[in-house]
Specification:
The structure holds two protein chains of two kinds.
Chain A (H helix, E strand, L loop, with lengths): L2 H4 L1 E5 L4 E2 L6 E2 L3 E5 L10 H20 L4 E4 L14 E4 L6 E3 L19 E5 L4 H8 L6 E2 L11 H7 L15 E7 L5 E5 L8 H7 L2 E4 L1 H7 L8 E8 L1 E2 L2 E6 L20 E2 L2 H9 L19 E7 L6 E10 L22 H11 L4 H12 L5 E3 L1 H4 L9 E9 L3 H14 L5 E9 L12 E10 L2 H16 L5 E2 L9 H8 L1 H13 L3 H6 L3 H5 L5
Parallel strand pairs in A: 4-6, 5-6, 11-12
Antiparallel strand pairs in A: 1-4, 2-3, 7-8, 8-13, 9-14, 10-11, 10-13, 15-18, 15-19, 16-18, 17-18, 17-21, 20-22, 20-23, 21-22
Chain B lengths: L1 H15 L4 E6 L2 H4 L2 E13 L2 E5 L15 E8 L1 H9 L4 E11 L18
Antiparallel strand pairs in B: 1-4, 2-3, 2-5, 4-5
Helix pairs in contact in B: 1-3
The chains are: A alpha+beta, B alpha+beta.
């Protein structure tokens, strides 16, 4: 059978499409399902080109029908960024990945090209979970520098919406991407790199039939492209050598890794007091009486305080992760590990239903949320283990607001006051730190960007809270951005205020790469229009 | 009559509510890696305890998964479906069935690396 039969399928839909978390739904005409060549050949130029032809076939098919289209992977985003008001091109089964061979690397590459396996070519449908497993395998010994807290997104979904973690001194997930293979229409492909950071020889792009472009502004537009530039088929990810990470929660008073089996660690309790405020604002770990790094350690690689605004005084749960060398013979275990009885798949939906009717239960929710969102036990593992399996849940509420670090405390105070104003929303505030990105619409836009991840139960109060966050920030004159892939309330004016001239540069890049207005219309949806990023 | 209209409105509203009952079984890899692609959904109606009616014909062959395994199956009933099941004493019991395919096997990774990376 031909590739047209085995690698491509048009699946009309007569039911609404839902995102993974079942918080967004809307009609779609159907889904173009894309598959890797059925004989499962080793990942390389030929299978990439065969997949590209099928993606271009989908673009031609939807254009002939006069319908817009969006790329789709896991459908992980909690905003309506995925809804196409038309059709979806599903690339989640395109999961090839391989290290870049040394002869393909451009002589001008500034990274440590001598380090074997640093650069990886990754097909767009690869989940973070799949990439972690491959990179951390003994065969390769590599690791991602950062991911989000969960591992279910595709690499393109995560990068196109600004997914981030809290690795101190490093940016968001997309800041690991150094080259992009973009399919712009039925006949046009681009291989994009930064002029300031060349990666692969032009011959590689040419073997794909793609036009190589080295341009900082174009790359910085597409790498956080919100799905508006076409279908990103492949990217090159810059990896690091693998490490182990020791996660210490609430700074155990005893050595957390020297606790006799069966005994519980002795825990500190932390509150949003003067010491914690100073640490959150300055990241001066030595100044905190209990959160100093253990002897012989530098600052943690990862730091995340989580505030529970529904407790009095406000309690803070703290995770610090310290990196250590990989142990010879260590084998990561990514298996899910849940108790036999506990919250079910739709647990959060049930909680939201109850809290809408019994808002007085909201403080009680804090204890339940903690058990869901925070593990007290110490844990050592690879990056993929630390940020691995999360029990699937529907109807989670999640949004993020980002500010410059020197406005961190103003922001937390504003959010706590807002929570008091509305009578308590079932949300906790995870504080994360993300270094600046060069991407034009990156919400990690300040040298040290302080991100408050607002997570909890979706109900009327949490929706009300999210809707009022921008006003609360504006009322206090705090400059802020919002996470593109989570619940956000961007307006054209808020986008302009947040990103300034970068908005025009992003729009200009789109016109340059998609010069035909019909091509831009093909990859436009309401999400972009509502935010002033498309007509 | 007014009571009848109200009752009809309540029942109609209730019938539109989703998530009245939901059951799910999934393979160990379901969330360790995740399913591949979007979920597939079809309606099915059990009659006299057996699968008597289906919008997809007799039984359902998950051809969408091609060579991949099923990763998860969920059965959902909304309020209306549950009510019909109750009124007919279980003789007629409609539901929405949702299934996910597993991800296909990884393509082989060409690499000139050594068998084991050194500990760093």
């Amino acid at each position: 059978m031909s590739d047209d039969t085995t690698m491509w399928e048009w699946l009309p839909q007569n039911r609404d499409w839902e995102n993974w978390h079942k918080t967004i739904e809307g009609p779609v005409d159907g889904v173009y399902m894309h598959r890797y060549p059925p004989e499962n050949p080793a990942f390389g130029i030929d299978p990439i080109n065969r997949c590209t032809r099928q993606i271009q076939r989908s673009i031609a098919h939807t254009r002939a029908a006069g319908r817009p289209v969006r790329g789709i992977g896991r459908g992980w985003s909690l905003s309506d960024i995925t809804l196409p008001q038309g059709r979806l091109i599903d690339i989640s089964l395109l999961i090839g990945r391989k290290p870049i061979a040394a002869p393909q690397i451009d002589p001008g590459y500034q990274g440590e090209s001598a380090e074997r396996g640093k650069l990886w070519l990754v097909q767009g449908g690869t989940y973070i979970s799949e990439l972690n497993r491959t990179l951390e395998d003994n065969r390769f010994g590599r690791s991602l520098r950062t991911t989000g807290a969960a591992n279910g997104q595709t690499v393109i979904g995560a990068s196109s919406t600004g997914t981030h973690g809290s690795a101190l001194g490093f940016g968001a997930f997309h800041d690991q991407i150094v080259a992009i293979h973009l399919i712009a229409n039925e006949t046009t492909q681009y291989w994009l790199e930064r002029a300031s950071y060349p990666v692969l020889k032009d011959s590689f792009a040419q073997s794909l039939g793609a036009r190589p472009i080295r341009d900082d502004k174009l790359f910085n537009a597409v790498v956080m492209g919100l799905g508006a530039f076409g279908i990103i088929h492949n990217v090159v990810v810059e990896t690091r050598s693998r490490r182990l990470f020791e996660a210490i929660n609430n700074a155990h008073l005893t050595d957390p890794f020297d606790i006799p089996a069966g005994q519980q660690p002795v825990l500190n309790r932390f509150f949003y007091d003067a010491d914690m405020r100073n640490l959150i604002e300055t990241l001066d770990f030595d100044a905190h009486p209990q959160l100093k790094p253990p002897p012989g350690r530098g600052d943690p690689y990862f730091f995340q305080p989580i505030l529970d605004p529904n407790t009095a005084p406000v309690e803070v749960l703290v995770t610090q992760m310290y990196e250590k060398p990989w142990l010879a013979g260590y084998t990561p275990n990514y298996a899910a590990n849940e108790s036999t009885f506990g919250p079910g798949y739709d647990f959060i939906s049930v909680l939201g239903f109850l809290l809408d009717r019994f808002p007085g239960m909201t403080p009680t929710f804090a204890n339940i949320a903690r058990s869901q969102l925070f593990r007290y036990a110490p844990k050592t593992g690879s990056w993929g283990e630390q940020f691995g399996y999360k029990a699937a849940r529907t109807k989670v509420a999640s949004g993020s607001v980002a500010v410059p670090l020197d406005r961190a405390l103003d922001t937390l105070d504003a959010l706590i006051d807002l929570n008091t104003d509305i009578g308590g929303a079932p949300l906790v505030y995870g504080c994360r730190y993300v270094a600046k990105s060069d991407a034009l619409l990156a919400f990690n836009k300040w040298d040290t960007t302080f991100v408050v991840s607002l997570d909890g139960v979706e109900n009327s109060r949490s929706r009300d809270f999210f809707a009022r966050v921008p006003q609360a920030m504006e009322a206090r004159g705090i400059p802020f951005t919002q996470h593109w892939g989570k619940t956000n309330h961007y307006t054209p004016q808020r986008v302009r205020t947040a990103y300034g001239a970068n908005v025009d540069a992003w729009l200009a890049a789109r016109e340059e790469l998609l010069p035909a207005s019909a091509d831009r219309a093909l990859f436009t949806n309401d999400y972009l229009r509502v935010r002033g990023l498309a007509d | 009559m007014a009571h009848g209209s109200s009752l009809a409105a309540v029942l109609a509203s209730a019938a539109l509510l989703s998530g009245c009952a939901s059951y799910r079984i999934y393979a160990p890899e379901f969330d360790g890696v995740g399913p591949g692609g979007q979920p597939y959904r079809y309606s099915s109606t059990s009659v006299l305890g057996d699968q008597g009616l289906s919008t997809e014909g007799s039984g359902y062959n998950a051809t969408q998964c091609r060579n991949a395994d099923l990763a998860a199956v969920a059965v959902r009933r909304n309020f209306g479906q549950s009510l019909l099941t109750l009124f007919t004493l279980g003789i007629v019991s409609p539901a929405m069935v949702e299934f996910y395919c597993a991800k296909p096997p990884d393509p082989p990774i060409p690499c000139d690396c050594e068998e084991d990376a050194p500990a760093q």
